[in-house]
Design a protein that fits this description.
mainly alpha; 70% helix
Amino acid sequence: MGDCCTSLAKYLLCLTNFVFFVAGGLVLSIGAWVIADKTSFIQLTQLDGVVNSQLGEHAKQVLGELSGPGVLEHAGYLLVAVGALIFVISFLGYCGALQESRVLLTAYGLFTLLMLGLQVAALTLVVVYQGPADSHSRTLLQASLGSYSPDSPRDAVSVSWDLVMSTHQCCGVNNYTDFRDARRFQEASRLEGTGRAVPPACCILEGPRADLRPADSTCTSLPSRQNSYYNKGCYNKFVNTLRDHDHLVVGTLIGPHTHHTTNLTNLTNKPFYHKSQT
């Protein structure tokens, strides 16, 4: 019975880490590809075809900005970092379980425990310092709105804010008043002379969401509860969503580590390891 449980733990550990190993390798490869040759990535994934397809003009603009060299390069570095981390840890787990190597499994266990410790520490700090963390997060997000521009050329921050606000039906960090301190937004509003108070992404939209076409043409200058989400801050929406699903968040963070720790315990208690040390 003990040998059966140990074999099951071994193959479960091999299977799960092989899946993560392949996934990490793919993420790492895609990131390296994006960094090395953005042009071929755009052509092969047909991003240029999507941008030039029969979409609304604003949708084409947003997709074009998302597929721009600057955005893709930052995304590539992020993919490389995440992929490399997943690749190395899953490699240690897969090879360690397959070869029944105490050295590799110990390294894998240490990495896993380190990541678990970092996650627990982060959760603890968020709970203990919830007030300061909340304040700093809001300040950081409000500072990012300073770079928000509704007009071309736009950067990744502007495009990201449009996607967040239109998708989650919210406006700004706290509410629409955050755009009063958004420097680039205010400059563009003054040049237009339309008295724009909020960007189109804050409005109730009609048609494809990517077009960012307000259902009420007066929404951007005269936002209200009837034509916009001007009083619904994105930060509060995000926090409330986390609170409503906190059990899922904790389970997602702790569950995989518990699974790996159980399998590691069963494997390292196998008589093979004790014999190999003699």
